[in-house]
Design the sequence.
């Protein structure tokens, strides 16, 4: 059971790629979306099963390997899942499913290419979630990155190519910085496994190459900040999100940048740079800048997807803030916010896909009063936005609250206050978007628009249910986490 | 720190600076790809240097070889996108890329 | 403990029932209307049932233990039950009135859902024992208010709905910062555990910002007159039953009952309230839009409530509480009357109206009854409440405050008489109009009569409020 569940994270996407490419192109195109559904759903189930097993056995993590001997002395890479990576794996499955549901209606002839690339990107993200050394981390980061460049440019249109190229350049710079920092750290440690590196870095101040290590830390923060789109390293992010095909935006906004940037950063931070206040403090400041900048910039945008992109910058700031607070409460808050952000941002991108498909545009000035014509999209976008703005009892409020309490307790009241007060800008762009797209009077040229039927609405409804249920049942979840001894 | 490490580090630094300078100054898509490649080569040098310093040359070599493979794929994808952009725009000037603003 | 079921019915019937209404409404609009009324009346009836036990000294309490001091629960003491009764009573009448008012407009499903959800959030808020729960219901009410103000969907109407949402949510965020700073100090969000603590000035100011923004007190009042673009039952709901009273209630709950305050606030808050009362009374004297005048009058009258609650004497506090009831009844009635007038004449400008008493006799009488109550003319309910407030202020540490409010009361009489005379007397401007539907007319008649009866049988409510305040302050 446990072997099957853990192996499925890496094995299943590989198997799917194989399956889709041994059959003829026609068959492959016909079955590709269904195969994708199966992979995504099995991944969600496997993540839940592993969580249940962790709690039943009272373990903190499960170690496993794919098809090599885990305990070999030379060159053995261990994979491992703990609670955080399982939550993340669940999110990957969920967002991939939403992306597939959107793609079914919007991607057109490119289904086979899309599904193949989706499997590659899932493989990359799952890899990031389970690896335990910097070397493999880099490999999977690049797999994720390359698949997403191609996905953005999938439709081979001008904007997509432009967005993809910008993303590629920034991502390559980020990779160079990250790899450079790994190289400099490697100089000191002689190993790349998280645990060994952490041990070797324990008294880095006395190391032979201490100045180099400081350069390495700076490169590390800068590199991952670019990947995660933290302000002021965010330049590529709105362009990439806006230009990508609808279903790819769902994937990018929902999970990819969070995996490649935020999760990888958190993982390395927590397992390698244990107790290095200077890195935490830098991230804290970057997080605050992101929160405020992203939210303010989102207020000035004219494109549905661009608003969502800037709001991602802002929300990622909260996740970073939670981790940078350095306390367990902040970490749990960040983990929950990661999950919540995956849920509500995916909902919003699915909504933007529905609007784009039905009206042909995402320019908010050309839209208006769509609530009368597209009730499901309108209601799910309201719920998602309220969750994002931290309005209780929706999910986003609770995770934000935990993060802010953690920052307030362990760093400073001012930081917590600023982070909380910035929510007003979230409310502001929420209102702007709702007023221009859904709430106001129905525009004359939109009277014929109908609701996006079928899988897109299904995705929006399912994700909204998750957001609401998570928020309303939060006291139960809190109690459960407490009983498990996590909080 | 001995003289060899100093030379290697300086060389790596110079290559990174050269790459970044090229990246900032040029408006040509192909040159941007070249700039990225130069910077990546500097990182490769750093990795080899790291392996030499800590004596774990085997791991370092594995890392470098894998990295070269990945880097090639990135370059191929980048060149592919550049070619497509050339077909669409008729040139490889980055100043033409102004569809996305906000 | 026994009777917990009653609180749950009172909170969750409207709160969850609200989401059934759109579903029912698709099939049978008539049934939806009746269900909506039924849910709100259920809240009222359960609140009345809970009253004896709340006054008996062993209030109903339900708690759910949670880690990190998040313990949540519901608690039905006298203050909570009194507020729940007042709100749900006025709200039931308003829902009944909407049957006639709203029936020709689109989006009725959303309307009834939001109204009932609104009442549900008020019920939840008054019973909460936890700062987070208070914040939760506070924000739910802000969302409902946003949807309801934007009911007509016009461009500038939605803009004003956005303004209301942004101001109340902005205030609420500051309040949440205040709550978290209280949490940091006491380690819990549970009000019952932190009773009697002294809180820092910073936290006090932040929470006060939230309260003032919700209760539309100077300088955060501007959204309330603008909210007049909403349908009249909605403005009535905002002013009389739910929204602005939430701020007052939280003020009473936190600063009267729960926290020890620095004595300086006993002067500062009344001064803010007094300035707010005078400035908005002045604004009401020059406005020509009937709904804006009544809206400014609400801001002005809220000053009296704040004065009563904050002046530091028991009579004043009891008077403030009594005035919450009387003002709800009367102001609810005034807005509903304004709704009938607007519905019939299709204008809100009082200069274009006149002599309407000939065509709208019942409305005119009801308007007069409610207006007299707000003016404070004996023997109407408003008189006794205002008298107690001013008496309380005059016997407090700073009696000069009372002068400010006597001026405010005089101004109230002037501007309300002005509206009344302009609209209902003089030359008839709209000869071919007739009274609103029977639901609308009977609603305003009920509210007018209740305002009068509240004054004639003043013993009962004043006894209850005095008793509540005594038991709260002696805790």
Sequence:
């Amino acid at each position: 059971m446990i072997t099957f569940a853990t192996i499925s994270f890496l094995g299943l996407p590989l198997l799917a790629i194989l399956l889709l490419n041994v059959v003829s192109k026609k068959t492959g195109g016909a079955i590709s979306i269904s195969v994708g559904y199966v992979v995504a759903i099995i991944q969600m189930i496997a993540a839940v099963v592993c969580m249940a097993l962790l709690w039943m056995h009272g373990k903190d993590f499960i170690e496993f390997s794919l098809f090599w001997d885990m305990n070999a002395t030379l060159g053995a890479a261990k994979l491992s899942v703990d609670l955080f990576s399982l939550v993340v794996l669940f999110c990957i499955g969920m967002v991939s499913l939403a992306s597939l549901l959107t793609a079914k209606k919007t991607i057109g002839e490119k289904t086979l290419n899309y599904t193949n690339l989706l499997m590659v990107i899932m493989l990359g993200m799952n890899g990031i979630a389970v690896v335990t050394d910097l070397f493999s981390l880099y490999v999977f980061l690049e797999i994720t990155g390359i698949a997403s460049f191609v996905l953005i440019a999938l439709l081979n249109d001008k904007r997509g190519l432009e967005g993809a190229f910008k993303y590629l350049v920034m991502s390559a710079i980020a990779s160079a910085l990250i790899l450079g920092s790994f190289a400099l750290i490697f100089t000191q440690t002689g190993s790349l496994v998280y645990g060994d590196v952490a041990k070797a870095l324990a008294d880095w101040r006395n190391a032979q190459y201490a100045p180099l290590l400081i350069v390495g830390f700076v490169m590390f923060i800068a590199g991952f900040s670019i990947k995660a789109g933290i302000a002021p390293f965010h330049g590529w992010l709105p362009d990439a999100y806006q230009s990508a095909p609808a279903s790819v935006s769902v994937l990018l906004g929902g999970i990819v940048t969070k995996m490649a940037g935020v999760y990888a950063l958190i993982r390395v931070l927590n397992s390698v740079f244990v107790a290095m206040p200077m890195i935490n403090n830098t991230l804290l400041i970057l997080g605050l800048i992101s929160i405020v900048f992203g939210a303010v910039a989102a207020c000035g945008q004219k494109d549905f997807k661009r608003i969502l992109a800037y709001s991602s910058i802002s929300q990622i700031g909260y996740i970073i803030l939670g981790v940078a607070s350095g306390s367990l409460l902040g970490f749990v808050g960040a983990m929950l916010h990661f999950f919540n952000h995956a849920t509500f941002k995916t909902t919003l991108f699915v909504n933007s896909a529905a609007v784009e498909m039905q009206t042909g545009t995402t320019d908010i000035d050309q839209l208006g009063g769509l609530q009368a014509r597209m009730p499901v999209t309108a209601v799910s976008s309201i719920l998602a936005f309220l969750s994002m703005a931290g309005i209780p009892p929706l999910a986003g409020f609770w995770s934000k609250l935990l993060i802010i309490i953690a920052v307030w307790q362990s760093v400073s009241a001012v930081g917590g206050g600023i982070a909380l007060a910035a929510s007003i800008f979230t409310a502001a762009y929420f209102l702007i978007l709702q007023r221009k797209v859904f709430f106001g009077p129905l525009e004359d040229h939109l009277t014929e628009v109908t609701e996006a039927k079928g899988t897109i609405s299904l995705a929006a409804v399912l994700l909204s249910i998750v957001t609401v249920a998570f928020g309303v049942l939060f006291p139960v979840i809190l109690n459960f986490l407490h009983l498990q001894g996590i909080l | 720190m001995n003289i060899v490490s100093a030379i290697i580090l300086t060389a790596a630094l110079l290559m990174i600076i050269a790459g970044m300078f090229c990246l900032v100054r040029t408006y040509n898509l192909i040159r941007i790809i070249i700039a990225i490649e130069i910077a990546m080569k500097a990182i490769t040098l750093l990795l080899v240097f790291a392996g030499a310093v800590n004596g774990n040359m085997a791991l370092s070599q594995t890392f470098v070889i894998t990295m070269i493979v990945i880097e090639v794929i990135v370059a191929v994808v980048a060149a592919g996108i550049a070619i497509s952009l050339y077909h669409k725009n008729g040139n490889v000037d980055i100043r033409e890329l102004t569809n996305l603003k906000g | 403990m026994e009777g917990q079921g009653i609180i749950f019915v009172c909170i969750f019937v409207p709160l969850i029932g609200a989401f059934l209404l759109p579903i029912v409404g698709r099939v049978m609009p008539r049934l939806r209307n009746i269900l909506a009324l039924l849910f709100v009346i259920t809240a009222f009836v359960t609140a009345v049932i809970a009253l004896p036990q709340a006054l008996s000294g062993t209030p109903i309490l339900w708690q759910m233990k949670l880690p990190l001091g998040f313990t949540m629960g519901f608690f039905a003491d006298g203050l909570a039950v009194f507020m729940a009764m007042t709100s749900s009573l006025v709200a039931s009448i308003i829902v009944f009135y909407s049957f006639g008012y709203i029936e020709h407009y689109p989006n009725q499903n959303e309307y009834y859902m939001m109204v009932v959800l609104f009442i549900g959030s008020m019920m939840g808020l008054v019973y909460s024992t936890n700062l987070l729960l208070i914040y939760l219901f506070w924000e739910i009410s802000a969302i409902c208010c946003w949807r309801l103000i934007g009911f007509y969907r016009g461009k500038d109407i939605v803009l004003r709905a956005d303004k209301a949402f942004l101001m109340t949510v902005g205030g609420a965020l500051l309040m949440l910062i205040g709550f978290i700073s209280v949490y940091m100090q006491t380690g819990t969000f549970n009000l019952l555990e932190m009773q009697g603590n002294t809180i820092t000035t910073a936290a006090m100011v932040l929470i006060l910002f939230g309260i003032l923004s919700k209760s539309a007190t100077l300088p955060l009042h501007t959204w309330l007159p603008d909210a007049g673009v909403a349908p009249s039952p909605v403005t009535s709901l905002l002013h009389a039953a739910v929204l602005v009273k939430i701020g007052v209630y939280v003020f009473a709950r936190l600063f009267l009952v729960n926290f020890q305050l620095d004595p300086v606030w006993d002067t500062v808050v009344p001064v803010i309230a007094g300035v707010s009362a005078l400035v908005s009374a002045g604004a009401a004297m020059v406005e020509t839009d009937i709904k804006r005048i009544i809206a400014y009058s609400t801001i002005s009258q809220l000053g009296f409530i704040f004065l009563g609650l904050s002046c530091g004497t028991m009579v004043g506090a009891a008077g403030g509480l009594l005035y919450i009831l009387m003002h709800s009844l009367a102001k609810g009635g005034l807005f509903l009357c304004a709704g009938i007038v607007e519905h019939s004449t299709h204008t809100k400008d009082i200069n274009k109206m006149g002599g309407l008493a000939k065509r709208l006799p019942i409305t005119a009488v009801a308007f007069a009854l409610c207006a007299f109550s707000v003016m404070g003319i004996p023997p109407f309910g408003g008189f006794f409440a205002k008298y107690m407030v001013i008496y309380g202020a005059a016997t407090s540490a700073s009696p000069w405050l009372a002068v400010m409010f006597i001026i405010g009361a005089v101004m109230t009489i002037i501007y309300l008489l002005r509206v009344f005379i302009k609209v209902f007397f003089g030359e008839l401007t709209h000869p071919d109009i007739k009274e609103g539907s029977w639901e609308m007319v009977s609603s305003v008649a009920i509210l007018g009569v209740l305002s009068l009866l509240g004054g004639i049988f003043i013993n009962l409510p004043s006894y209850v409020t005095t008793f509540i305040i005594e038991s709260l302050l002696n805790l």
